[in-house]
Structures are given as C-alpha cells and as structure tokens.
C-alpha cells in the first residue's frame, strides 16, 4: 500500500484509482495472449536446438524429415540472408540485425546450448516433434567458455573470428571475446585517491538472471500469396516485430501487418524477435499459417537473460563523508553476441551521487550463453549492487548513518552526470528523507534481525509515439494507443484522455492498434509509455477539445477565444450571448452538421523524460541451521513525478522489488562443466513466490512532477529493480558481520559466511 | 496416435472431445475446447498458470492427461463469473489492481477460489502458502494477497446476509 497519496487537487481522474479498461477481459480469461490465436489450416512450428555450448555446424540433413507425412516446411539458417543487416533501434539500445538473424537460426556455428539450428512446420505437434528428431545435424564440438572473466583471458576459446575489440586504440591485432571497451570519467581520480582520508574497495559479482515473464514467447504468422503477411504475436512492440522480421526476410514494411496480442510480461525480454521471422519464413515456404510457442525450457535456454557481471570498485572520501572520487571496472556477459548493457551500467553507476572525480571502464564480453536481452533498467542493478555495497561499507567505516551519508552526496538539480546530462526535476533528496522519516526506518531491530539500505537510478526515456482520440457520437471517446499494454497502460492512457476531455473515465476506452491502424511507435520499454505515448494521447485530446470549442463558437456565432472547455463542456464567456454550455455529448451528436467526425491523431518524438530515483530499506533474518533468508519488512520509496494511477505505480514498485529480491537471493543460471544449463525450469530456477515475501510498502514521492509532461509523469517501471540487490545484500552483510560480494546470496553462502565469521 | 472420446463436465456443461497420446488436460481445454483462459507458463506444474478445479480439487491442468478427465467435473476461469456477474475474487482483483500483465491471473483466481471454497477466513500466511504454487512475476504478490483477503471478507458477508 502507498503511504497516503491523495489525488492532486483539481484533477477529477488523474491520481485516482479507477478499474482498468481491460480489466474484465483479464479476470475472465477472455484476453488473448500470444498462444491463444488459432487460424484455419494452421500448422505447428517447432525449433531444433543445439545440444552443445559451442560447435561448428558441419552439415544439416533434412531429407528424412522432409519425407515424413505431415511435414510441410523446413528451414535452416541458410534460408535467411540479411547481408550486412544494419541496426534497428530497440528501446534503450540498438540491435545489430545480423546477430538477431543468426540468433533466430544459427549460421555456421552454434554458439550456446539451445541455439536454434533448424525449424519445421507440420500438421500436428507430434509430427513436428518427430520431424525434429529426423533432422540430422553433424557438429564439430568446439571448446567453450561460460564465465565472463574466463572469456576475457588470452587463451579463451574465441566465439567470433571477426571480433576485434572496439574502443581500444590501436585496434587489437587478434580477435577476442571482448566486443567493446567503454571508458568514461572526469576529474583527477589518482589525485583524489592520494588525498583521501578513507578508501574502500571491493570486487563484486552477480549471476545471469532471466526476466522470468510467465508467458513463453509465442506467435502465429500467415504468409499471403500476394506477399502481404500478418503476424499475431506477444511482444513489447508490434512495430519492432515488424521492422526486425521485415529486415530479416527482406520484405517491404507495408507488406507486413503485425497485430499485438496481449503480452504476458516482458520486462525488456520481449524487445526482440526469436520466433516471428522463423514462423513467417515457414509460412512462406508452405502457404499455410504457422504457430510457434516456446516451452519454458526453450525460454530459459534461448531467450533473455540479462548479463552476469564482475566488477571492481574503489571509493575515496573525506572523513566527514564526502565522496571525492571513484573508480570502477565493469565486465558484463553479453551472451553469444555483442550487446550487454555495460555502457548503461557505467552511466548509471554513480548517477545518484555528485562525485567530482570518476573513472569508469566497461567491457562487453561474449561467451557461450544465450544472447542477453534487456531486463528492467538494463545494466543498472548490477552496477548499483557494487556501488551501494561500497557506500554501505564506507558508512560503516565512518560510523555514519547510511542515509545521512547518501544525503551528504546526493545529486541535486543542476549537477552534471558523467554522461553529460544535467540533473533536473530530481527528487532524490526528498526520497532519501522520506525513507529516513518512515516508521520502518525508525523501528528498532530485534535480535537476529538486520537492515539494509540502498538507492537506485534510471534515466527513463521518451521517443517516438503515436496516439489517436476518437469522439463517439454518443459522447464517449476511444483512445487508440500504439504500445502493447504490459502492466495497465490502457488505464493511464484512458485516464489522461478523460481528464483532458472532461469525461468520466467510464466513458473513455482504450485499444492497442496493429501496425496498419496507428502511426509508428517505439516499443513498450524504457519506462516510456505513460510519458511519451501519454503525451501523444494528451495532445490528441487537446486537439479534439480545440475542435469542440471551434464548433461551439460557430454554433454561438462568437469568437473561439470566448469559448472555454470546462468539465467536459464548452462554456461561452461572451457576456452578450445568453447560451447554456454545450456538453461534449451535445456537440458530438451534431458533428455531421459542424464539420464531420471529431477525431485527432498525434505522432511525436517526446523529449524531456525525467530520471527517477529510488531508495529501499529491507529488514531480514536468516535461519541459523539452513542459512535461508527471510525478508521481514520491505519499504520502497520512489521519485515518480506524478502517479497517473497510483495503484499501478505502486504495483511497479512492488513487482520490481520482488524481482530484485529474487536476483539477490536465489536466481542464477547454473552451468555444468560441459557448458550446459542445469536449471532450465521454474523448479530449479527459483523465482520468488507468495510465501517468500512480505507485504511491500511503497512511498510515492510526488514533490517534483515532470514539467515536460502535461500531467507530470515520469517513467516508474525500471527504477524499482535497481536498489534491491544491495538493500538485501547490505542487510545480510550486517547480519553475518562480513561484506557479501557475490550474488545470489543462496542459503549455502549465507551459512558459510555466518560460520566462517 | 490413438485418441479416444472423453466425456466430462466443464463449467457445468457436458462436453465431448478427442483426447489421447501425450495430450494434457490443458492441451485439451485450449486446443480441443478452445477454452484458452487457462495458460501454459511452464508445462511442468511449477507456475500454476493452468490451475483448474477438478471434482473440487485444485490441479495443474498441464499435469493431468486429457483422458483422465473422463467423467470429471472441471471448473475453469471461463466459468468463474456467474452469467456475466463477476465473482467477488474477480471484483477484488480489479479493485486492488492485483494484476499487471494478467497472464497468471486466471490461475491465481482459480487457486484462490479453491482456497476460499474450503477456508472462508484464511490468514495472510495461509493465503501466501496456498498461492505459493502460482507464480506472478509482475506484482510482487502484495495486491494479490490483499485482494484474496478482501474477497474472503466479501464472501463471508454475503454468506451472513444470505
């Protein structure tokens, strides 16, 4: 529950908590997700995957499978030809399409266990399964490397013969697994360390973790004989699916219509394609619709996860707690292809703090793991784990309250970030103070309990969005959104439109349109939808209001400047006119006589997304015999700008905390010596369940509404996964009396730390 | 693959479908009867997205073979609302914003119904342990647990006034 947020004065809808417009569909089973579509004549597609961590594909023989009755199409990597490929913007970073294509179907080499090598479409699932067995792949098994530090060693097996580290001069003379080195910083770091009163240092690691969305990837693709095709799929962006699929299959964008299904969670992991190009290419070969649904094992083996990391950090400070310098090296697993979010780790690491001298080096490193995908604040949680652990260590060394230490170093508006942006509309100080004043932080611990505090930052983004508002002739309105609704955005879109139009929320509905029915939009990612697409909705609603005012002015034969829109009606300010207000309904019912249908569509490139800050406090205890940690109490405070629908904002905080707690305590990709994943299922990849968590209290800080958004919204979805890793780890470190440096903090590790002292 | 005719009652109505081979009850519900409200999140009984009630017992439909449904009384999410009137659990899930993506929601609702059918006044701990077989990755469970507790109170109130 949130601590006492009241709806903002003057708003009738924004800041309230109405039922979401798509709610009933989702509690009655009517909502259609990716796997719920069915077409006449539809075939089942299945994918054959590499059993090896690293192998050359010598030969793929499909003859026996082709002869199996019921098999209609077979596909291998040789069927894809993207050439140079180019890049496509995919939210917070760009995707190299050559790699995306080679990840959908391997070409030449299988780079990780589960890497797709062939695909079939057949009339029945069991025939498709049999056909996969009949496809013979001859592999030459190669040495593999899993660990990020091992992959950087001189003698490590090299995945890509053409990978010469970028960002290093001169260009290396031999290929390696280091795709890129990033360097950023400022000031005189060695000088500041030489002058420091106190220095803390440490090395930290985190494991690769999966986004863990409950809905496996799924799509249906149907090729038309005229080359015009349709895809139904569950993704974070129908336009992204269209762009990537069209690029891989060399299609004009206008020949491909992508219809967004409801999406069963994504957290960044559905901002790419795995199945859609394969399903459509199969459909193209046989002229029938093809459905492919991943199993959970396939999801673990061949989608997501996010990077595991290895980091070294040093902080320099004065004895009164001013952090004067930091240096940090971050090494992130990219999986089998370049593209870890290590640069985002570097940028966010110290974004909460005003540190004069900084030196950051990041390495993007490939190894024989699945290609990483974005995961909620990509790159930030790992970096924050190291930074917030080091700051906790500093607080102990200086005998300072950990919140006071952070307040002493907190960024304020006007400060410069290491990546060049100037801090504005920030409420980090207010967020720290809210936690400090909260009853949770004031409550003394009982024996055997410990408390941890940590902070976190995320940029949030804006970008390209489209939306339309249609006024219905009975006085209601429909909002057409361009973004899949992953967690309640239909509610925030409808609410902002209702507020602007002056309609009750029940009279505004929101639909998510396919790629042919609304202008382009970037993906549902980067915490951008309520900000950027919301801005498009509000601008479209304002255009509608202006149109309604014009029609009222014409009706009253007065100047439009004399017509004000108030509570859903045009009001005439001209004292010479004795007229009653004209409601939206009255104006809509006469639209044919006043200029035709009332609607507006707006496409924009939203600027001015404001960063968000979070501060979390966690109380926990650990079982003396087993080392199992129990979270006793958890409070998350966040700078949210203004909460459009506070319940769904709270839900973002609570969900982010739960994922972060899983990252801290249990979740990890476990590999055998042969480079094979040993826990590709929910039983062994342990995500938090209801009995693992307490209630998660939230504090929504609304002191600094974003002035660049019509209702003050900031992105809220990503910040809350940043602080929990260190909040939990700092508490366990306090409990066991030593610094915990390697996630996850499994019972065995906690027990060993306890008894080892 | 041999298939046999399976006769069962689904949401109060008699149904017949062809089931067999390795087909699970979940496959039969989704692919034969087109009741796609029950979801497959794992296929191994770990996530609970396919939770249905069979002869009063909560089961993962992915773990039951389709022919085992012969003669059974099956309740799915599609039958939870009564002639278009939401069940108190459905109502409270909406009131509390206890869903984000909504994929796990049908399973969570069926599991919660099975709990309240046998325990009308569960404690928070009882709710949390009963729902431990139903994963939700979006909500952190806070609002889900509150919704179930409030729905239980609604049902008790309705029982009193009935």
What can you tell me about this protein's structure?
The complex is a heterodimer of chains A (757) and B (162). Chain A is α+β, with helices and mostly antiparallel strands and 757 residues long. Chain A is built from 20 helices and 28 strands. In chain A, helix 15 packs parallel to helix 16 and helix 18 (646-665) crosses helix 19 (724-736). The longest helix of chain A is centred in the last third of the chain and has 28 residues, at 529-556. Chain A is globular, with a radius of gyration of 27 Å. Chain A starts with 22 loop residues before the first helix and ends with a helix. The model of chain A has no long low-confidence stretch (mean pLDDT 96). In chain B, strand 1 (3-10) and strand 2 (13-20) form a beta hairpin. In chain B, helix 2 crosses helix 5. The interface between A and B is large, with 63 and 60 residues.
Helix-strand layout with pairing:
The complex is a heterodimer of chains A (757) and B (162).
Chain A: H1 23-28, E1 43-49, E2 55-61, H2 63-67, E3 71-76, E4 87-89, E5 94-96, H3 97-104, E6 109-110, E7 116-122, H4 125-134, E8 136-141, H5 148-151, E9 178-186, H6 189-194, E10 198-206, E11 218-222, E12 229-233, H7 238-249, E13 256-260, H8 276-286, E14 290-293, H9 296-302, E15 309-317, E16 323-335, H10 342-349, E17 357-366, H11 380-398, H12 402-409, H13 428-437, H14 439-442, E18 450-458, E19 463-471, E20 477-481, H15 489-501, E21 508-512, H16 529-556, E22 563-566, E23 569-572, E24 582-583, H17 584-589, E25 599-606, E26 612-622, E27 629-639, H18 646-665, E28 696-701, H19 724-736, H20 747-756
Parallel strand pairs in A: 1-14, 12-13, 16-17, 20-21, 27-28
Antiparallel strand pairs in A: 1-7, 2-6, 2-8, 3-7, 4-5, 9-17, 10-15, 11-12, 11-14, 15-16, 18-26, 19-20, 19-25, 22-23, 23-24, 26-27
Helix pairs in contact in A: 7-8, 10-11, 11-19, 15-16, 18-19
Chain B: E1 3-10, E2 13-20, H1 25-32, E3 51-54, E4 57-60, E5 73-75, H2 88-95, H3 105-118, H4 124-130, H5 142-161
Parallel strand pairs in B: 1-5
Antiparallel strand pairs in B: 1-2, 3-4, 3-5
Helix pairs in contact in B: 2-5
């Amino acid at each position: 529950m949130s601590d006492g947020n009241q709806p903002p004065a003057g708003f009738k809808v924004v800041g309230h908590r109405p039922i979401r417009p798509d709610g009933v569909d989702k509690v009655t089973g009517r909502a259609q997700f990716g796997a719920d579509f069915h077409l006449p004549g539809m075939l089942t597609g299945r994918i054959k995957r590499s059993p090896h961590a690293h192998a050359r594909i010598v030969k793929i023989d499909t003859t026996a499978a082709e002869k199996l009755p019921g098999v209609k199409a077979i596909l291998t990597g040789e069927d894809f030809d993207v050439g140079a490929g180019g890049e496509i913007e995919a939210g917070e970073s760009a995707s190299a399409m050559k790699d995306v294509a080679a990840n959908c179907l391997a070409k030449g080499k299988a780079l990780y266990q589960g890497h797709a090598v062939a695909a079939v479409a057949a009339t029945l699932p069991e025939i498709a399964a049999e056909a996969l067995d009949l496809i013979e792949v001859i592999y030459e098994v190669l040495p593999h490397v899993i660990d990020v530090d091992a992959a950087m060693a001189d003698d490590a097996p090299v995945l890509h013969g053409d990978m010469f580290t970028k960002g290093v001069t001169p260009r290396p003379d031999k290929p390696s697994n280091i795709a890129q080195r990033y360097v950023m910083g400022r000031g005189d770091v060695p000088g500041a360390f030489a002058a420091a009163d106190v220095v803390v240092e440490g090395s930290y690691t985190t494991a690769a973790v999966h986004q863990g969305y409950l809905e496996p990837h799924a799509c249906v693709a149907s090729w038309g004989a005229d080359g015009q095709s349709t895809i139904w799929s569950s993704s974070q962006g129908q336009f992204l699916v269209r762009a990537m699929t069209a690029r891989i299959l060399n299609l004009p964008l206008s020949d491909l219509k992508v219809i967004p299904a409801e999406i069963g969670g994504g957290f960044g992991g559905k901002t790419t394609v795995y199945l859609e190009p394969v399903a459509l290419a199969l459909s193209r070969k046989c002229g029938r619709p093809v459905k492919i649904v991943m199993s959970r094992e396939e999801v673990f083996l061949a989608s997501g996860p996010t990077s595991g990391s290895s980091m070294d950090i040093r902080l320099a400070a004065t004895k009164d707690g001013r952090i004067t310098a930091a240096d940090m090296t971050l090494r992130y697993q990219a999986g089998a292809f370049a593209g870890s979010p290590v640069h985002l780790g570097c940028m966010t690491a110290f974004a909460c703090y005003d540190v004069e001298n900084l030196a950051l080096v990041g390495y993007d490193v490939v190894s024989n793991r699945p290609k990483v995908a974005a995961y909620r604040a990509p790159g930030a949680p790992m970096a924050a784990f190291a930074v917030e652990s080091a700051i906790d260590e500093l607080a102990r060394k200086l005998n300072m309250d950990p919140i006071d230490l952070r307040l002493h170093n907190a960024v304020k508006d006007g400060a410069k970030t290491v990546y060049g942006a100037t801090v504005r509309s920030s409420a980090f100080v207010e967020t720290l103070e809210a936690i400090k004043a909260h009853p949770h932080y004031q409550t003394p611990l009982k024996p055997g309990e410990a408390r941890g505090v940590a902070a976190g930052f995320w940029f949030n983004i804006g970008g390209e969005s489209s939306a339309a508002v249609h006024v219905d002739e009975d006085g209601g309105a429909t909002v057409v959104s361009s973004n899949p609704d992953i967690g309640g955005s239909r509610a925030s879109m409808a609410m902002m439109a209702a507020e602007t139009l002056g309609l009750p929320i029940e009279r505004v509905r929101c639909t998510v349109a396919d790629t042919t029915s609304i202008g382009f939009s970037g993906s549902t990612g980067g915490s951008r939808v309520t900000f950027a697409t919301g801005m498009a909705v509000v601008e479209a609603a304002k255009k509608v209001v202006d149109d309604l005012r014009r029609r009222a002015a014409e009706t009253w034969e007065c100047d439009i400047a004399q017509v004000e829109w108030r509570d859903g009606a045009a009001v005439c300010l001209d004292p010479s006119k004795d007229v009653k207000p004209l409601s939206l309904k009255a104006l809509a019912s006469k639209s044919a006589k006043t200029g035709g249908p009332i609607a507006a569509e707006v496409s924009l490139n939203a600027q001015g997304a404001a960063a968000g800050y979070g501060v979390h406090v966690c109380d926990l205890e650990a079982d003396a015999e087993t080392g199992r940690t129990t979270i006793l109490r958890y409070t998350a405070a966040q700078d949210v700008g203004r909460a459009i629908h506070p319940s769904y904002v709270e839900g973002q905080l609570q969900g982010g905390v739960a994922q972060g707690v899983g990252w801290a305590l249990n979740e990890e990709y476990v590999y055998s010596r042969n480079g094979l994943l040993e826990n590709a299922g929910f039983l062994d990849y342990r995500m938090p369940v209801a009995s693992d968590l307490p209630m998660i209290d939230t504090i929504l800080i609304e002191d600094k509404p974003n002035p660049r958004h019509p209702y003050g919204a900031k992105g809220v979805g990503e910040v809350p996964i940043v602080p929990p890793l260190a909040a939990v780890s700092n508490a366990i470190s306090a409990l066991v009396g030593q610094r915990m440096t390697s996630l996850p903090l499994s019972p065995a590790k906690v027990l060993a730390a306890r008894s080892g002292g | 693959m041999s298939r046999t005719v399976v006769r069962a009652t689904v949401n109060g109505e008699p149904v017949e479908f062809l089931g067999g081979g390795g087909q699970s009850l979940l496959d039969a519900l989704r692919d034969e009867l087109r009741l796609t409200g029950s979801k497959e999140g794992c296929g191994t009984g770990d996530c609970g997205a396919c939770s249905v009630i069979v002869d009063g017992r909560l089961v993962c439909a992915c773990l039951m073979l389709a022919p085992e449904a012969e003669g059974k009384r099956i309740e799915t999410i599609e039958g939870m609302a009564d002639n278009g009137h939401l069940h108190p659990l459905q109502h409270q899930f909406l009131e509390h914003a206890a869903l984000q993506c909504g994929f796990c929601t049908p399973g969570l609702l069926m599991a919660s119904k099975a709990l309240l059918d046998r325990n009308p006044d569960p404690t928070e701990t009882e709710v949390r342990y009963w729902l431990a077989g139903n994963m939700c990755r979006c909500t952190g469970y806070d609002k889900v647990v509150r919704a179930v507790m409030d729905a239980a109170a609604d049902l008790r109130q309705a029982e009193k006034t009935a």
